[in-house]
Amino acid sequence: MRAWMTAAYPICRSISGDGVRGTLDLLADVLPDGATLERTGVPSGTQVFDWTIADEWNVREAWVRGPDGQRVVDLADHTLHLVGYSAPVHARVPLEELRRHLHSLPDRPDWIPYRTSYYHRDWGFCLRHRDLQGLPPGDYEVLVDATLEPGELVYGEVVLPGSTDGEVLVSSHVCHPSLANDNLSGLAVATELLRLLAARPERRHTYRFLFAPGTIGSLTWLSRNTDRLDRIRHGLVITGLAGGGPLVYKQTLRGTRTVDDAAAHVVRARGGEVRPYAPWGYDERQFNAVGFDLPVGRLTRTPHGEYPEYHTSADDLAFVGDDELVDALDALVEIVDVLEGDATYANLSPFGEPQLGRHGLYPTTGGHSADQEVMAMLWTLGLSDGITSLLEVAARSGLPFADVRAAADRLCAAGLLGPRPQAERSATNRASDPIEPKTSPVKSSSSTVTP
Amino acid sequence: MRAWMTAAYPICRSISGDGVRGTLDLLADVLPDGATLERTGVPSGTQVFDWTIADEWNVREAWVRGPDGQRVVDLADHTLHLVGYSAPVHARVPLEELRRHLHSLPDRPDWIPYRTSYYHRDWGFCLRHRDLQGLPPGDYEVLVDATLEPGELVYGEVVLPGSTDGEVLVSSHVCHPSLANDNLSGLAVATELLRLLAARPERRHTYRFLFAPGTIGSLTWLSRNTDRLDRIRHGLVITGLAGGGPLVYKQTLRGTRTVDDAAAHVVRARGGEVRPYAPWGYDERQFNAVGFDLPVGRLTRTPHGEYPEYHTSADDLAFVGDDELVDALDALVEIVDVLEGDATYANLSPFGEPQLGRHGLYPTTGGHSADQEVMAMLWTLGLSDGITSLLEVAARSGLPFADVRAAADRLCAAGLLGPRPQAERSATNRASDPIEPKTSPVKSSSSTVTP
Amino acid sequence: MRAWMTAAYPICRSISGDGVRGTLDLLADVLPDGATLERTGVPSGTQVFDWTIADEWNVREAWVRGPDGQRVVDLADHTLHLVGYSAPVHARVPLEELRRHLHSLPDRPDWIPYRTSYYHRDWGFCLRHRDLQGLPPGDYEVLVDATLEPGELVYGEVVLPGSTDGEVLVSSHVCHPSLANDNLSGLAVATELLRLLAARPERRHTYRFLFAPGTIGSLTWLSRNTDRLDRIRHGLVITGLAGGGPLVYKQTLRGTRTVDDAAAHVVRARGGEVRPYAPWGYDERQFNAVGFDLPVGRLTRTPHGEYPEYHTSADDLAFVGDDELVDALDALVEIVDVLEGDATYANLSPFGEPQLGRHGLYPTTGGHSADQEVMAMLWTLGLSDGITSLLEVAARSGLPFADVRAAADRLCAAGLLGPRPQAERSATNRASDPIEPKTSPVKSSSSTVTP
């Protein structure tokens, strides 16, 4: 992940142009055998819902030369120096006029800010406030050797087919220039997750990785897939997975999706935090717009805007810890394991506790307290009414999902757990009523049965 | 408000009689042009649900003269000196017998208590405990020159018509004698609210102000309006708006009415408190009786019985702070603004976030964090599914309702928000499902949709 | 209760055999006139759901003699010395082999542990660790003069008929040897409760007391009553009612049964604790298995496994406090009183507060704050809409159930409360809507109406 980020860091990315293409090339380079990056290019001028795809932006050179002829700002030094989507210009301007095009951070005089102007044609440079203050009066030569012309918006997708058509969408934006946490961290971890999933002999869900420019990119993808959106069963926007702080899961619009429960279960057990949905942030706000209402949450560490390095040159490769990337990857694998492993079973020996010992599942000397493995089996048997899912069993019992899943496997193998046998169960009086787990009140409220 | 209270303070009010008539006169005097106080008189003996309207009580003079011929208690000094509804008497009684008719507060020897005996024919006087203890032995002359005869119970109403028949009921009791917080404060603030509402060019709801004697007055009004009670959409009993402490909103019987949400939103933001319903207090207990079950909450400051000055002569004009009245009035105006402004819209550009900049609604340079105005627009767009109301948007977002209402106005003007377009929305897969806001679980539980 | 426990303590009980029979004899001895202990014997080998009834176990003598011929462990000294269901043996074994059959508690060297081996044929002895360490090397003579032969599993039932067929099940296990808290305390308190209930002139519910061996005993009872389980309206497993700590109520699987609300109301008011269901513990885990899903909670003091004396010789008669037994009995009587007294009424004077004074129910001088008796009447009138139960009134008001029940009795006698009069109520606009009390959200969610 470190190597990939180091290679991708210097590229001058924006929402269109060769920077995105180059980054997709780097992603394609590290894909495992059998996985293909499929690219889609959509022409400038195409209407995408309320938006229009802008002209493609490419830049060759951009600098400001001082009264003494020395370059005071140069895109070649740092991709953040140029305001994204700056229009071409070559002019000589006095300092006073130049300053209206310069952006700096007075509070952080050593950091270069990140600015863009996608939908307002303008040009500008970003620089350290310390450097800005040192600019002598006089005339400055400004060059932005860029093209802003009809072209295309490009995004990439990698699909790992599963045994069902139901998809898990993993989306990570690909439009930010030399900013390491936001979002090379997301791209690097997504790619590694993709490699781990590709190596699995079996996948229940189909996994779709989307690498698209922020906002307009995800909207464009949505606009070209409106008839297939109902395939998305779960989704995660992943970005900003390093830079300090615990993992933070942001819920979907409804906050009651399976991905919300799965991510909350994993993230909280790892000391992370769960936050309610808010209609700003990254591309989750597009997926969760009321017209789409997709079950897509978001995983970050400290969210955007809450750390000072956000959208500045201080978000560099040193800002991203290797252990943070590994921890985020581990959490994602655990979330995927929940999504893959969650299922609903019926206790096939529902009339009282089965004699676990007889099935080779229990210590034979009584009087001891049940150990965690036995507890996981008892919880799974005790709540599996054909309606309550394993994830709900994990939530109510406080046990890790993996333990509950393992217990379910042992019980299935022993013939004590399986699909709900309709005929048998209807023989008893209340067996058809669902259980209402106290720990998931939202879910249970819909399954309330009044006697 | 201060001037009105000062004028109304000396009047000897009770649940019937000229004191109520005189107070209604004072209220009529300060009504704005076009607003009329309509009075209703209902004869003594009329059956009102479980109650019967008592004879009308009027008193000319009432005093106790000591053994030395000096008056030791005199209604002319303070209206609280006479027990309300005291029967006429003129007698000479020894001190021992007199004491059985005297009420004082041993713990507050300088305060006169407030006592009534509406439904048990008796007479009595209230006095400072200090004075009671100084009474010498001997014979006392007692005079209560009162009439307790068939007459009528009187209440007043002012109606400000709105563009709909749906009514907001504002009720304030008019039966307490010289007690300033309970309830001249309620009457003064209600009148001022009435003036502010009358001055509005437009009102969505019809506003009905009810000035009636406590309990029997509101019951009489209810008995004469049973066929029109379904017009009451929201209601507030207002009383005790001064005397210290934060604002306290008492919920309706159900606790889930719009007025509960509106008042909670406003009162909590002002540092006030929300309490659940309890079946005692002021007239809210009549409006919320199970047979009526009207959506009427109550606004006070420290509630009755929780401050020592309650129902004593210490609840005088000095006990009522001008700033408290103004603050209560402000809160009421805010609650009214919510009731007037709350509505449910549909995002007309629901497929992803609209390009606010293109509609003139967004700063054009990206990279900054959204300011509060933009946040209000994003929340309103993000939750407006044609089911979720603006008040729910405010509750979930934590934004003031006024900001959300202003955002909705801007978005409506820009064509991004409007009534739900049935045909269009049915084209997408889940667009017809309601959003379940986490922050209003009671509401959301009814809109749970399992995919 | 103390005398009964003292008599029952020395008996060597297990899940079958003469110990159970002898204990049932002792229970039968203390039954009140008219109450009969009905015994059921089910043959060994009978299939009971996933289980098979084991051979019956009886033991005459069991000891270990040391190299010097002295008995080092002897069942005659303490029933815990022999592992329950030990197979017959008479052998001479060296110390090393003997040790594999000995159980002790290194951390509690003076206590004898309790062990059983019901379903794994073996023999063993339990002894003080101090004694274990003092055993000299050499050959030991081991005798277990026991029979493990086809016989029967025995349980006893006492039924106190009520005015309805609906049953309250009170279950207490009868299989533990000389352990006083677990479970002579449960048996003693159950018997005393039975005597108190038998003495009542009237019982609304039928009470069924079940005295059965743990797990296999309750399963056997369930297997023979599958067609009658729907009669069980409420139930409690009672055990471990002494030994320190506050009362602890463990909820049913659903946690929303009437017995859950009743027990929570009583136990919390007495400073006790309410815990959610977990699928292990005593026989509640059989009654709450998904196939039965019966409304049976559990009452204990500090639960099994949470006190060091659990399943050791330290759980002796001195470990059980008389005051603890009396307190537990009082709590059970209160819970029974709730189950007997809970009912749903309609306010027959629902249009405003009735004039309590006119009905002889209210102090006649106004201006005082309502006392607790009046509060209970006002709450009962204020919430009795024909749907909300008295227990819900108690929960929402915070008043003891007994006060609410007494208020309902007074109001019924005064004709203010009674069965819901259908015709009258339909005359008002919203009277048919249920009330949703904020304080019992689980219940109220079931009365949610989806538009």
From TrEMBL, chains A, B, C:
Domain DUF4910: 4-341
Highest taxon listed in the record's lineage: Bacteria
Gene3D superfamilies: 3.50.30.90, Winged helix-like DNA-binding domain superfamily/Winged helix DNA-binding domain, Zn peptidases
Domain DUF2172: 56-146
Region listing for Disordered, in residue ranges: 419-451
Pfam family of the protein (one): HTH_47
Family annotation (SUPFAM superfamilies): Zn-dependent exopeptidases (SSF53187)
Composition bias, Low complexity: 437-451
Domain UCP01524 winged helix-turn-helix: start-end pairs: 344-417
Protein name: DUF4910 domain-containing protein
Organism this protein belongs to: Nocardioides baculatus
